[in-house]
Amino acid sequence: MTTTKRDKSLIVIQLTGGNDYLNTVVPYGEGRYYDSRSTVNIPQDRVIPLDGKVGFNPSMGAMKSLWDEGKVAVINGIGYQTPNRSHFRSMDIWHTAEPDAIGKEGWLGRAIRDFDPGGENVLTGINFGRGLPRSLACQGVSVASVGDLATYGLFPDVEDEELRMFTLEAFARMYGNTAGRDPVLNFLGQTGQDALHGADILRTAPAMYSSSVEYAPNSLAQNVKSISQVFHAGLGARVLYTTHASFDTHSGELPTHAKLWDEVSGAVGCLMDDLKEHGREDDAAILIFSEFGRRIKDNGSGSDHGSGGVAFLIGGAVEGGMYGEYPSLAEAEQLEGDLRSNNDFRSVYTDILEDWWGLDAAPIVNGQFEKLNVFRS
């Protein structure tokens, strides 16, 4: 089921828990930052400067190298107009592109349905990790959720091939079409058939992949390695998704946040090296986002739920640089002690949908939003 057609794919890294924007893209040239963050701050001499005003967290060295190559877009002050500081609700808003109501479908699920309305490829969307992110959930769309690519599949522990084929045949009959079943059973039956169809295909990906890049042994890096294996196997995956946690740094933030960003930056650096080694760095874009930022003032050990965050788009086809103004830390400009969002997250989605994938964004993101023009024309 491999293909030589070089479709453009999106790789999503979700930073679960609310990443601290202020300690990620650090406004080290702004005195108000240090006044507000008397304890939980990044000293000026440790910031990796991007210019005379802001710089990366010192754990983001690999991403700084990509920034220097013009492949990192920093989307400042991203969020939505009326912030919600609940992890679950805010992430749901990002997943469904619906801030004002409870959305029924994920924005990426809708995109997958547009790519493949007939559901011909059950591997168009793949999540690497447990569960299924709401952004990928959509009626009529099958998404594989892979815990461990090396052992993924149906009954992979059955070593005898004849016995395994017998077991798979029984599974297929169990989930086969049966007239008169109710809609729930029909849905489950289709899900089972799709799982049966996709599982063994995915198991072939590691054997089809070779690379000199060595990924770190942490869970994110290994998920990103699996993403690279599947992407380079040419299975037609257009959305490859994973999450990393926990960015909910109410206490002990400095060492925790540093470790998390060391893992994220390192995994992204390896992935980009992998793409470049295979001549594919213009065929994949990486989106990194979190549900919200943290409060401007620290709490002595960490920082609490806030608004106004940062997102990143990374890739060979990305026009690197700063997008949007860094939100003001002036008290008069704050939103109840938080940074005020000045870039709607659906603008970034619109860039991806229209300029990266050539889809009609409005029905997917529930409206018209001005693009940031992040991709090279």
The Rg value, from CA coordinates, equals: 21 Å
* Approximate strand percentage: 5-15%
Number of helices: 10
Task: Using the alpha-carbon principal axes, give the shape.
Answer: globular
Instruction: Output mean pLDDT.
Output: 89
Instruction: Spell the H/E element sequence.
Output: EEHEEHEHHEEHHHEHEEEEHH
Count the strands? Answer: 12
Q: Unreliable segments (pLDDT under 50, ≥5 consecutive)?
A: 154-158, 183-192
State the distance separating the first and last CA atoms: 31 Å
Main sheet characteristics: 9 strands, mixed
Class of secondary structure makeup: alpha/beta
Overall description:
There is one protein chain. This protein is an alpha/beta fold and 377 residues long. It has a domain at 9-102 and 237-365. It contains 10 helices and 12 strands. The strands form 2 sheets. Strands 1, 5, 6, 7, 8, 9, 10, 11 and 12 form a 9-stranded mixed β-sheet that branches. Strands 2-4-3 form a 3-stranded antiparallel β-sheet, with no helix packed on it. Helix 2 (61-68) packs across helix 8 (253-277), helix 5 runs antiparallel to helix 6 (183-202) and helix 7 (219-233) runs parallel beside helix 8. It is globular.
How do the strands and helices of this protein lay out in sequence?
Blueprint: E1 9-15, E2 25-26, H1 31-36, E3 48-49, E4 55-56, H2 61-68, E5 72-79, H3 87-96, H4 107-115, E6 125-128, E7 143-146, H5 161-174, H6 183-202, H7 219-233, E8 239-244, H8 253-277, E9 284-290, E10 309-314, E11 321-323, E12 343-344, H9 345-356, H10 362-365
Parallel strand pairs: 1-8, 1-9, 5-11, 5-12, 6-7, 6-8
Antiparallel strand pairs: 2-4, 3-4, 5-10, 9-10
Helix pairs in contact: 2-8, 5-6, 7-8
